[in-house]
Specification:
The protein is about 55% helix and about 10% strand. With about 230 residues, the chain is α+β, with helices and mostly antiparallel strands. It has two domains: about 110 residues, Glutaredoxin, CATH 3.40.30.10; about 110 residues, Glutathione S-transferase Yfyf (Class Pi), Chain A, domain 2. A four-stranded mixed β-sheet has the order 2-1-3-4, covered by helices on one side. α1 packs parallel to α3, α1 packs across α6 and α4 packs parallel to α6. The structure holds glutathione (GSH). Glutathione binds next to α1 and α3. The site of glutathione has 14 residues, from α1 and α3. Pfam families: GST_N. It comes from Jezberella montanilacus. This is GST-like protein.
Length: about 230
């Protein structure tokens, strides 16, 4: 059975949704990043980058959520675009927009807004601006069409995983500016598959608090600032 190295955060969650949507049996391997599981030598053999998610499929190992989605999409053959170059050009463009834009900019915004020891106006302004710029682009796309491509697929699952966090990024009034993103989020939230993914965090034990030890595990760069 597939093993999904999982923490209930956006990148692992999109992979879990794909597995649920395709009815693929999988086993959750709790990888609690607040407890430092991502730094364990046995996990680094699977993901040298020390982040969740990672996937083990028999003797095959894949790390990085986008690589895993592509691996599963090609293997299982569902929720992928039609097999012709124009459809793939569109698919890859938006896949990379999500992987290299939405993910990193929202991640840094969360860091500087909620976790950095100092509120740095420069960093907050830059990441809030860039995160909004990316979401505005998604909003424009989803205002024109129900899904990121012609049919519901991998890209929408990735949008869902990040859109769940929008109130944490920008506050709840952000939805006024992102009604089409909200429409897609609500549609996917209503699916039993998405609800099964949300339930994972209640079926396994994950550390909830971000204490000194969690900060050490999540932000090892802070250690260099200590004299
Ligand atoms: N590009 C990677 C990013 C993975 C990533 O940042 N994962 C977060 C959870 S969403 C994580 O494991 N954070 C713990 C840490 O940075 O130590 C992917 O898409 O899988």
């Amino acid at each position: 059975m597939l093993k999904l190295y999982f923490h209930p955060s956006p990148n692992p969650i999109k992979v879990a949704l794909y597995l649920e949507e395709t009815n693929t049996p999988y086993e959750i391997v709790v990888t609690d990043t607040r407890k430092g599981d991502q730094h364990k030598p046995e996990f680094r053999l699977i993901n040298p980058n020390g982040k969740t998610p990672a996937l083990v499929d028999g003797d095959i190992q894949v790390f990085d959520s986008t690589a895993i989605m592509l691996y599963l999409g090609e293997k299982i053959g569902k929720f992928m675009p039609p097999k012709h170059p124009a459809a793939h050009a569109e698919f890859y463009s938006w896949l990379m927009f999500l992987a290299t834009g939405i993910g990193p900019y929202c991640g840094q915004l969360v860091h500087f807004k909620h976790f950095a020891p100092e509120k740095l106006e420069y960093a907050l302004n830059r990441y809030d601006f860039e995160a909004w710029r990316h979401w505005d682009i998604l909003e424009a796309r989803l205002a024109k069409q129900p899904y990121m491509l012609d049919e519901y697929g991998i890209l929408d699952m990735s949008v869902w995983a990040w859109a769940r966090m929008i109130p944490f990024f920008f506050g709840t009034d952000a939805w006024e500016k992102l009604p089409s993103v909200k429409r897609l989020l609500d549609e996917i939230n209503a699916k039993p598959t998405a609800q099964a993914v949300e339930a994972i965090k209640t079926q396994y034990t994950f550390k909830m608090e971000v204490d000194e030890d969690s900060r050490k595990n999540l932000f090892p760069s802070n250690e260099r600032l200590k004299k």
